[in-house]
């Protein structure tokens, strides 16, 4: 059901990407930059469907603390990505570079799908809480209730960087500035991927061990995600657009840094106000209450 949901979402995104040049021009981007963007993103459309398979596979494994298959499959895909990228870029140019991205992701999906299919046929040994076919309808309903706020939170965070790119296109030296910005953000993504991987592993480990089947915890996560989404709405756009565009690309980066600092301060204040003893007591009460009730089977969100 998750894969079907993501595939359905790719339909409007596909139409959006096919008209991205008109959208960019409407927002004041240069004609040549908009044309190049449409060329690249048009050949990247297959990656939408590949990602719709990749994300559920990766989450399915990581939720069970199984991360080595994802690491090895990504390493194999990376080994293929370099020669594929070189060959396609020389033969097809920008279109080839775009195609190399989804071909690499497709390799990861194929390897993970093979791994999951093999283990699904082996009953008992590896899976802690059953496979895909053992999940109930209620599990998927809980997933759908949570995915909206989670997706909104993630989108708002990444849109801050995309807005930065759009604003860069309005500068006088847009081509040079976009080139500089692309290189800088790519290095930033490399560093961010390390932190994101660590955060994902830690959060997954904690959620699997502490009260993963509590109704109160699930409700709290849903409400907190909405709060974080609101924080992101007012955080980065205000800082980036806050009257510093006259400094050019450097000014945009200053605004981005200001937004990150504001977000960090808000989170620190929020964490400092938490009474951990009270929260631990609430968690213990929830655990006691849950033990007195009928266990919720296969409650994984």
Structure write-up:
The protein is globular and about 65 Å long. It is mainly α. Helices cover 80% and strands 0% of the residues. The chain is built from 11 helices and no strands. It folds into 2 domains: 1-131, no CATH class; 135-301, no CATH class. Helix 1 (2-18) runs antiparallel to helix 4 (46-62).
Tell me briefly what this model is.
Belongs to the multi antimicrobial extrusion (MATE) (TC 2.A.66.1) family. The chain has helices at residues 2-18, 20-26, 31-42, 46-62, 68-92, 94-120, 137-168, 174-209, 215-240, 248-272, 276-291.
Oligomeric state: single chain
Total strand segments: 0
| Helix and strand sequence | HHHHHHHHHHH
What is the molecular shape?
globular
Beta-strand level of the residues, as a percent range? Answer: under 5%
* Helix fraction by DSSP (H/I, runs of at least 4): over 70%
Overall mean confidence score, pLDDT: 71
Largest sheet: none
What is the SS-derived class? Answer: mainly alpha
Number of domains: 2
Low-confidence stretches: 242-246, 293-301
Amino- and carboxy-terminal Cα gap: 13 Å
- What is the rounded Rg? 22 Å
**Helical region count?**
11
Defining key terms:
disordered C terminus, single chain, 301 residues, mainly alpha
Task: Walk me through the topology.
Elements: H1 2-18, H2 20-26, H3 31-42, H4 46-62, H5 68-92, H6 94-120, H7 137-168, H8 174-209, H9 215-240, H10 248-272, H11 276-291
Helix pairs in contact: 1-4, 2-3, 3-6, 4-6, 5-6, 7-9, 7-10, 9-10
Keywords: Membrane, Transmembrane, Transmembrane helix
Family: Belongs to the multi antimicrobial extrusion (MATE) (TC 2.A.66.1) family.
GO molecular function: antiporter activity; xenobiotic transmembrane transporter activity
């Amino acid at each position: 059901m998750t894969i079907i949901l993501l595939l359905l979402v790719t339909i409007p995104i596909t139409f959006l990407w096919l008209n991205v040049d008109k959208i960019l021009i409407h927002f004041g981007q240069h004609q040549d930059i908009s044309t190049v963007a449409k060329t690249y993103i048009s050949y990247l459309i297959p990656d939408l469907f590949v990602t719709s398979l990749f994300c559920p596979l990766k989450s399915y494994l990581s939720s069970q603390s199984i991360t080595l298959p994802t690491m090895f499959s990504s390493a194999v895909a990376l080994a293929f990505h370099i020669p594929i990228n070189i060959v396609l870029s020389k033969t097809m140019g920008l279109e080839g570079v775009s195609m190399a991205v989804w071909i690499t992701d497709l390799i990861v999906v194929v390897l993970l799908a093979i791994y999951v299919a093999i283990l699904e046929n082996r009953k008992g040994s590896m899976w802690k809480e059953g496979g895909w076919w053992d999940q109930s309808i209620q599990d998927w309903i809980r997933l759908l209730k949570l995915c909206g706020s989670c997706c909104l939170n993630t989108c708002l965070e990444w849109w801050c960087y995309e807005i930065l790119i759009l604003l860069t296109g309005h500068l006088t030296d847009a081509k040079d500035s976009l080139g500089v910005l692309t290189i800088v953000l790519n290095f930033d993504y490399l560093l961010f991927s390390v932190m994101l991987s660590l955060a994902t592993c830690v959060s997954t480990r904690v959620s699997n061990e502490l009260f993963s089947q509590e109704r109160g915890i699930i409700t709290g996560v849903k409400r907190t995600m909405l709060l974080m989404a609101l924080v992101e709405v007012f955080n980065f756009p205000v800082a980036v657009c806050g009257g510093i565009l006259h400094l050019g690309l450097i000014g945009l980066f200053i605004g981005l840094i200001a937004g990150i600092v504001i977000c960090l301060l808000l989170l620190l204040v929020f964490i400092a106000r938490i009474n951990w003893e009270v929260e631990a007591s609430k968690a213990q009460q929830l655990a006691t209450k849950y033990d007195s009730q009928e266990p919720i089977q296969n409650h994984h969100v």
